[in-house]
Specification:
single chain; alpha/beta; Rossmann fold; 2 domains; seven-stranded mixed β-sheet; three-stranded antiparallel β-sheet; 16 strands; about 25% strand
Length: about 325
């Protein structure tokens, strides 16, 4: 039995008897079943506090336009992406209306400009189109007269995705064409076009969708001389590792951690089967020895950082450093 206490902003969860770090506990809030992985360093009887989404953030679809804002993202080739984002996007879960950390760090890594040159590239879960548009703006050699980059997401995201594709048309590399298509991973399409390169960023936050994501990759990826790029921001490693396990066993993919330049080499060196595993010595060392500045007043290890540190004490630079500590980039190829 999981003990919970709720107020308007937080739910407190007491770790039950016989539970250990890495175990997943399930609880119910307002009729919704939620899961939480017990963090390293926790013990029976500890109380975990989780921030809840506030009701007033939910808006009617006709008010979405008022919540839109433009953000500018500098690319490594000195071009600038200008994206409209909207935190109140109607339909689905709204995650497609924001820029997420692994996408930003993937751009900073320089990997996109080092990918093989192919005639067609697919991005899954494009959201605002950050990764696909960044690739379209940085590609230096086009295989033939035209390179197609297809941005996909759930149907409710396509209007915003198309808007961003249109806004950035002027900075696309010569010979590159960007298309947008709706794609529901849960709906099988045996006639789906295949692509040698598939771009993925921050797609594992909903662990229940992992089987559909793996099935979609099986349908849409052409592994011959191709690759899959997966930028992951670890949130529930015990559940998210299922993606890598499934793709290795079901699709025959071998994943390599991307650390090909000086910037990326300073990122987390753990492999996917190590990250967040409380029984893994390398992971425990990473969480106890990776230090982040908090409020400019001192350092804490990743394992010691609290929700209050993140929400109340961190500067923007400190928050970015904390986020980056949970981001990794993998390149998958057929074994």
């Amino acid at each position: 039995m999981v003990s919970t206490e709720k107020n308007s902003k937080f739910v407190s969860i007491q770790i039950p008897d016989n539970a250990e770090p890495g175990d997943t506990i399930t609880f119910n809030i307002d009729g919704n079943e939620l899961e939480l992985e017990i963090p390293v360093g926790s013990k029976v009887g500890d109380v975990l506090k989780i921030q809840l989404a506030e009701q007033e953030q939910q808006q009617e679809p006709e008010e979405d336009e008022e919540e839109m804002e433009e953000i500018s993202i500098e690319l490594l080739n000195n071009k600038t992406l200008k994206l409209v984002q909207n935190s109140c996007s109607g339909g689905h879960d709204g995650t497609h209306g924001l820029v997420w950390p692994s996408g930003r760090f993937l751009i900073e890594s320089g990997l996109l400009s080092n990918l093989p040159n192919e005639k067609s590239v697919l991005e899954l879960g494009s959201g605002l189109g950050l990764i696909g548009l960044a690739y379209a703006a940085t590609i230096t050699t086009v295989t033939s007269n035209l390179c197609r980059i297809v941005l996909t997401d759930v149907p409710s995201s396509i209007d915003l995705l198309q808007k961003n594709a249109t806004r950035n048309q002027s900075i696309l590399a010569k010979g590159v064409k960007v298309e947008t298509q709706s794609l529901d991973w849960s709906k099988s399409n045996d006639t789906m076009e295949t692509f040698p390169i598939v771009l993925c960023s921050d797609l594992l936050y909903n662990s229940s969708s992992i089987p559909d994501l793996v099935a979609t990759l099986q349908r849409c990826w052409n592994p011959e001389n191709g690759c899959i790029v997966m930028a992951v921001r670890w949130r529930k490693p015990g559940l998210e590792r299922d993606f890598f396990q499934r793709t290795e066993t079901e699709l025959g993919i071998e994943w390599q951690l991307y650390t090909d330049n000086d910037e990326a080499s300073s990122w987390c060196p753990l492999m996917w089967h190590e990250f967040g595993d409380p029984n893994n010595e390398n992971s425990n060392k990473y969480f106890s020895q990776t230090m982040i500045s908090i409020g400019g007043e001192g350092l804490k290890s990743l394992g010691e950082i609290t929700e209050h540190d993140v929400e109340e004490s961190m500067s923007s630079e400190e928050f970015n450093a904390w986020e980056r500590a949970f981001v990794q980039i993998y390149v998958g190829k057929k074994k």
